[in-house]
Amino acid sequence: MRIAINGLSARFGGGAAYLRNLLEHLSEIDHENKYVVFSNPEEKDSFTVDAHNFSIIVPGFPGRAVIRRVLWEQLILPALIKKYSVDVLFSPGGMAPMMIPGGCKRVNLVQNMAPFSDELLALYPLNRRKMRFLMLRKLYPLFIAGADANIFISMYSLNSLQRVVRFDRDTSKVIYHGKDEHFKPVAPDTATGFVREHYGVDKEFVLYVSNISRYKKQLEVVKAYHMIRERGAGVKNLVLAGIMVEPSYYHEVLAMADSLGVKDEVIYLGRIPQEHLPYLYSAASVFVFASVCENCPNILIEAMACGAPIVSSNSGPMQEICGNAALYFDPSNPAEMADRMLQVLSDEKTRRDLMENALKNVKRFSWEKTARKTLEVFERTQG
Description:
Layout: E1 2-6, H1 13-29, E2 34-38, E3 54-57, H2 66-75, H3 77-83, E4 88-91, E5 105-109, H4 118-121, H5 128-146, E6 149-152, H6 155-162, E7 172-174, H7 188-199, E8 205-209, H8 218-230, E9 237-241, H9 247-259, E10 266-268, H10 277-283, E11 286-289, H11 298-305, E12 310-313, H12 318-322, E13 326-329, H13 334-346, H14 348-361, H15 367-381
Helix pairs in contact: 1-15, 7-10, 8-9, 8-13
């Protein structure tokens, strides 16, 4: 069987992490089928796998704009499918050709639930970003309905999308993301020493790892942090880490921190190497995750794997992923967020229970399991 994977949408964040781990583990368990992976130039090296049956190809892709990618997928990709005699096309970015050569089956996966989140869309004016989400809201259902099989990465996404598009639930499967093996607890002294040496953070801190975007609610996190400081919390810093997707929003966050008198305590680290993250998760006094829209957030799985005490948004799939390994809050309510943080910071039993539950709950997630179940879907489409 020849399997093509359209990886052009995987540029950063959860989408790139998903495809990188999936390819690595597929290459370990499947030595028979042939794989052709279409990649962006900037991600080619990260998707390289050392296996004779995998080929990474960088096509002449015309830029990053969604409309250009849609045109490439509709007009050029079908010819490549024919050229490589593809039996199964896997589209983990949610978009696939509407017309493909006969005999080729389509397996679809939607990573991005943002276009279907009314709460998220309400945060943005009618700008370029919102127009992109609205366009994807129209396009994704077409690709889901036309697929021979659909993979969902949470029950939340399956149930949410079934309310807006008709597809065959019998040919659909929920397959969660996995856990990278290097995410594990680091001894407290080692973790705090590493964070001090590499990032200059030598005080107890609240940690939030996520892209800087309006729907991630960093503004509300700053407000909640100010509240816990006003109420005597012992933490001395709020550490933000992640790609700055929306620079204008980041400046709003800084302005809010300044107005509240905590600007000097808010530390933005930018994008963090994967190998450094376990030290940050392990050193944090409390880990907060405030996003209003996710699908199967890798960050929560990583934080659990490191035994972090988590307080999380109650939106979307968060409770499905974390279960009893987190305390939950309304992400639009900074006061409730602050209450949850203080509960962790002031109650040692709550903190210890969350850390223990995290390490138990994360055992559900495995990239090998993800790869095996995904391969089963590919094989099932061939009868």
